[in-house]
Write the structure tokens for this entry.
Amino acid sequence: MQIVMGLSGGMDSVTLLGLLLEQGYHVHCCLFYYGSKHNKWENKAARKIVDFYRQYDRPITANFVNLAEAMDSFQSNLLQSGGEIPEGHYTEESMHQTVVPSRNLIMASIMAGMAESIGAQKIALGVHSGDHFIYPDCRTEFVKALDTTIFLSSDKQVEVITPLSNYDKTSILTAGYSCDPQVPYYLTRTCYKDQELSCGKCGSCTERLQAFRSIGKKDPIPYEMPLGVM
């Protein structure tokens, strides 16, 4: 069984990768570079994660996809061309500034084309329940429409699955620690800022830290200055 997914290097996509490998899939990972502030750091993490699973002889391939020029004129604070990354809780209105227009639509289209080309019948997205509030291209209605579109555009050969769609961050961590091997969260990158050390203050870091606290574990990565949830 073959499947294509996007591997950002964050805890959601890495957990998805671990679960798919456990289910026996040969996973073709797309590492997208699209010009975000944290892109170089998350791509670096993604490469380390691919190497981690290869040492266990897991069936995994990595494909680097550069979208930076195509998305250069897009407007979002998450991009290098945008403003400051907002700090605070993930569900606050300020986090809407990190929405990148049509990002999942564009990336899913590329993954669907790859899947059709190599004979894979599925692409997997790492969207989860916590994303639905802020990101329109993570909501259930979008995923349903995307699945229909890709299914028809591939002449009914490729479908979209979202195994984490009903998971929150706590459930994602619980699932990842239940994998064998355990998902290597110490290699992951979640922070939205353009700096080597995770800030601990942006919405993405804050949500991650709260999730680790909720399962009674210390986040295994270092932080610059977490907002009191370590």
